[in-house]
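Pilot study result, target chain (533 residues):
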Amino acid sequence: AMHTLIKETHRNQLPYTSSRSSDVWDALIALDGDDSNGDGSSESVRLIYANTFVAAIPYDQGTCEYWNREHLWPRSRGIGNSGKDNTDIHHLRPSDCNINAARSNNYFGTCGTSRLFSECSSPAHLEAAFDTEKDSVTFLPPENRRGDVARAILYMDLRYDGDEDSTTTMDLVVSDCPESVVNGAGMGYLSQLLQWHLDDPPDESERLRNDRACSDWQGNRNPFIDHPQLASIYHGGPRPLLGDSLGYDCTISPPPPPSPNSGICSDGSGSCTSVDQCPCVSTSAASPFDRKLQTTTSSSQLIITGVIDGPLPGGLPKMVELYALGDVTDLSAYGIGSANNGGGSDGQEFTLSGGSLPARSFITIASESVEFANYFGETPTYTSGAVGVNGDDAIELFYNGEVADTFGDVRVDGTDQAWEYVDGWAYRKEVGSVAPVSGSVFQIGDWTLSGINAVDGCADNDSCGSSFPFKSFSFGVCECLGASTSAPTTGSTGPPPTKAPVPEPATSCSTISRRKDCRREPGCAWSRSNGCY
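Predicted structure:
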């Protein structure tokens, strides 16, 4: 469930390098800069392995004179050249070019893990921080960055299971025996990363980076920063080394950390002993995995999730996407209207046809069907001139004649406004465990904006460098991760327990061979040593 959540909320894939739109360089300057102006802009960036600040501009263009971009999970260990894994800013950091080259694709760990101490160099490079070291296999980051590195690697292991649309994205596996990962996509060393995660917990700067990565750049979060106890739920505790330079015995299960009988809700909303205690469980028996809503007085079950002003002739496709938070029994209670050029609400201009709609379903309303199909590869649910808007016009969703949700300000021409989407798009974010429903008050913080002219020149959504996150809004599946099967102990406190070992569930989880399939099967859990159980 957590894998699905961070995958489906990863709505924006940044270009690695672009002269036309914001790219990874821009994101790293914003996320890893000094932010001395207090507004997200930075004149310098912190280098991950040197632990120093250097000027943000210029950056390296292949000459190794300036700072460059480090993939904490190396490209040569399973990262593709074009997928989201290559530009995922949760594992990218500014780095000194020479230290980056010295690190190469080494696993993270201390000298002596799998090679003799006589091979060790400290610091790892003349330009690296004093408390770094490396040998031919391992690389040790600065002490105050080891937890950050660990959580980035744990995130990548959870985020990428080889189930992306891109064929170059592999199943990334963090392990104490990474060289034995059959697809060459292994990274290590898990036990040392888990220990660093405990020794160097998330601080305010790391939490702020996570917030900004989600809200300003990518759309998803690193759950190991928000809820550090998830590391033990997924991986247990650190194993001991077999001895100097002998590595780890991966045939034994990792030791479970001390823990009581509590777990954590898979939406990251809080602790639990059963899924019934998670806010992501609906009070409706018909929709057990829908989250409780911060609803308007209208109790609408539909929300606006996206708008696009397309790049094809005539500014097509023009479309509004809706999403059903719960079961809709009568679609004719809903309608759409547009407000052109800040002229105020024109009221409901198009009414959906009658019928019902199950929860977690999408509706697309386009101004016409031909160019919509050319761009998105399918026909819209409805067509209506009511959505024949430009990228500076607001949209209103009506329920029983009242405004239930809004994109844009109906009283303001969107030109030069933060919500303008001319030749671009806007898509709704997921906010914590609560579905944002605006009513008549537009909340720009609930939205990811592509920026104007972002889709110029695109022939279709799949090949566009700024693709619309078509039908990607999701709440995920709700679970109480890591809770004991025994009755909770009254007054127990502390972190959630590991999932390994746990009693064998009634389902035959052991017959499932792939990690991603195991994680999707209710009642099953995965560990590196036990497989699916």
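One observation from the pilot: Residues 204-218 form the longest helix (15 residues). A full batch analysis is planned for the follow-on phase.
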